[in-house]
Amino acid sequence: MGRFILYAAAVVLGIAALLFFPIILETDVHYDMNRRKFGFALYAYKAWKLVGGYVTTYRGGFALHVSPEKAILKPYSGMNEDRKRFSFVRAFRVISFVLTTETGAEYLLPVAAAHNVLRVLFFSVGGRRGKIRNNLWLTDGDELKISANLVLYFNLFILLRAFLQFLKERFKRLWQKKTSASTV
Prior knowledge:
The protein has 184 residues and is α+β, with helices and mostly antiparallel strands. 38% of the residues lie in helices and 37% in strands. An 8-stranded mixed beta sheet has the order 5-4-3-2-1-8-6-7.
């Protein structure tokens, strides 16, 4: 009987560790307007590169180039359907957000306004004061370079809870739709 309790406790502790162990993701994004380049990289625990590459546009959509031989095509027409699916993004918690913009005088006013809007949005979704940093650099000429670093964490418990809430809302809508159709 003692071994059974030991194995059961080990299984329960293992499941709890899997559910509550934090998973940390870091993403780096860089956009250069003059060279028309948009690069990105996604890392797990700052050590393992999960995906990286650059984005280009084509007629009717955009392409994510994740390797020299592989590109993921995403048409503009399919974006509205993708938006309505379950999104894991709401389950992420922000550890830090750093935005650096290098611009000429021509874009200074709109970029400064965009920085302020981003700060307001960050704080309105529950961001903390020490977790965001904006840098605005003024240079000569017609130039616009934007770099961002975002560090997020989540765990499987947060994702599972968000998924169950999504299912609950989906069933609630279906139930209301079926109930209203049967009473008419």
